[in-house]
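[agent] plan:
  1. take the single chain provided in the ticket
  2. run structure prediction with default settings
  3. attach structure tokens to the ticket
  4. add a short note for the reviewer (M.T.)
[agent] executing step 1
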Amino acid sequence: MSENTVNLSTKFSPEEWTLIKSAPFLAGLFVTLSDLRSGLFGAIKEGFVPSQAIIEALTGASNPVVASVAASIKEMAAKREKLQPPVSVAGKKPEEVKAEVAAQLAKIPAILEGKVPADQAEGFKSWLVAIAGKVANAATEGGFFGFGGERVSGVETAAINELASSLGVKV
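[agent] step 2 finished; step 3 output follows
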């Protein structure tokens, strides 16, 4: 952890902290799985968005939860440790993985409650919804080799709204 970042991991169980650290990636995956028409390259573009959000958070996150998550992930990367999200994808259809991701993300408000101040919890949850929005904007859906299609599909918008609702964030 940097000297300006508070280590909030001690306020949570190891399982809770793993979920919180995984949440930016899960929020992105939730949107990506909602509309797979962008194809391989679109999924790759969408997959980079959560990492970019974490990098941005390292240089200027005002929210202590966001900053602590970003610093923790940076520390793991420096040690070459892998983040193991609490979601199993082996042998599952995309809609099954999406449902499991949704169930994990729905736990976030209860995990944060009482362990961090309400404004910090709200800021973290809003950050997750913002990441979902950036993922939706990363690639067009339904086009052909980048032509045509729509920037954010109705299905992606619905996924963002569903995520916001499960986290208790107003969009």
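[agent] step 4 note for reviewer: The longest helix spans residues 39-60.
[agent] ticket updated
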